[in-house]
Write a structure and sequence with these properties.
A: about 110 residues; mainly beta; B: about 120 residues; seven-stranded mixed β-sheet; four-stranded antiparallel β-sheet; about 0% helix
Amino acid sequence: SQQGEEDPQALSIQEGENATMNCSYKTSINNLQWYRQNSGRGLVHLILIRSNEREKHSGRLRVTLDTSKKSSSLLITASRAADTASYFCATLQSNTGNQFYFGTGTSLTVIP
Amino acid sequence: KAGVTQTPRYLIKTRGQQVTLSCSPISGHRSVSWYQQTPGQGLQFLFEYFSETQRNKGNFPGRFSGRQFSNSRSEMNVSTLELGDSALYLCASSFSAGAGVGELFFGEGSRLTVL
């Protein structure tokens, strides 16, 4: 499978704490994106990082990319109860006709 | 700008039946891709269409098919339904395809239950 793997599978934290989730992938990529999904809903795009970038910020989100280790991390700072959702990384893989592969997801629960 | 619209949102079918799901992308978007999401397998890529042509196809049996119309709207069809086809089917649109594609815009999905 060319899907990415994310860890942890589930994460439970208190409101105000930071949440970090990691994504590993297997082949060369054009870009890596993070998406959020509330239960039973569609995915919402959070942030995109290109293969030649190492770090990117957007509001309370910070994404890093290490292409040598084929891994990425998503940090959500000062978490809120509304951040409770599943988070997926998606890689645009150049060796498969530029097809997206989604990771297995991290289920984040933020306790008020 | 209206988002990606998927219909129907919920449907129940029995084994052996067929189903057609519809997706209207964001105005101006020419690429539509489909994904199957199940608890066990996560998000699995089905196929991608760009300007009425199928660009990519995932590893699904021939019972799964799709098409795209000249207005970029897309449909996917599953014939001879099996219990394992129960899933959330997600459609995503983007302006471009290939190496230059940016973010995907997802619809709310069509929840298919096969009894």
